[in-house]
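We modelled the chain as a single entity of 324 amino acids. Its sequence is:
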Amino acid sequence: MKTSITVSRNDAGQRLDKFLTKTYKALPMAMLYKAIRKKDVRLNGKRCEAADRLKEGDVIGLFLPDDVLTQAPPTYEFMHASKVLDIVYEDENILLLNKKVGLLVHPDDREFRDTLIFRVQRYLYEKGEYDPAAEFSFAPALVNRIDRNTAGIVIAAKTAAALRILNDKLKNREIQKYYQCIVHGRMPKREDTLEGYLEKNEAQNRVYISDKAKAGARTIRTRYKVLGQRDGFSLLEVHLLTGRTHQIRAHLASIGHPLLGDGKYGTNALNKGTGFDKQALCSYRLKFDFTTPADELDYLNGKEFTLEDIWFVPLFESGEIRKN
């Protein structure tokens, strides 16, 4: 069978072999590499290499058996997701979303369909900005993630270019994230930068904090500022200087101040009677702080977004939270 594919904007930048194996699930790797060597795969009518990087508008010619070039009929799982989305900001490249407590960002073994990413994909599909049938390998994706029982701002990329740029910015700490939380007890200082080492235990889905370096542990830095103290609790703003799994929850618990409602790094006995069975934690402020070029996303540099409706703050300010 002879067929051809024209590379779209969202598929540009990938290796030829990676793109083809994503597009044709039934195509064995060995057959693909043999076809490339025999010139049964051509790029713009010419001999090509598996590692060639694709550009928008490139035409890939394929001379391969019909059975490996048959694409499965589309089934869009995201259409089963809820339509409910709290959009903080949107433009042609990104979405900023206010994720509510209890909503998963990605599917897991307990919840597959109604997740934040599927809600985003359904929204963009119904809006006409995402057509899976026209995309060979790209789908709108989340740049950052937060726990199911943590609320706050999550970034979604509408294009492959935006996703690549923002992943790079997040990795290089050019996106600043600030949280608010309530912890047990009064903090030793009005503000401070905590430093330590975090070790992740995948089997237990938890992390452990140490003040000494050890093999496999990663350095963490967590800055906090006290916004208020009352009734044996402290309301904090936390600036993540490093971004590790469960960093805020584990780091504050390690110095004797677990988050209110957190049964994993605190204790259920400590939270009993407070009315909180989920951690009082919200990613409430985000700032794009680019120190290197961001190409088509340069316009975002310096922009800051803040949530006003943090679910637990009114309870703290009104004094409704009580110790057991």
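As a brief sanity check on the tokenised model: The mean pLDDT is 93. The chain is about 20% helix and 30% strand.
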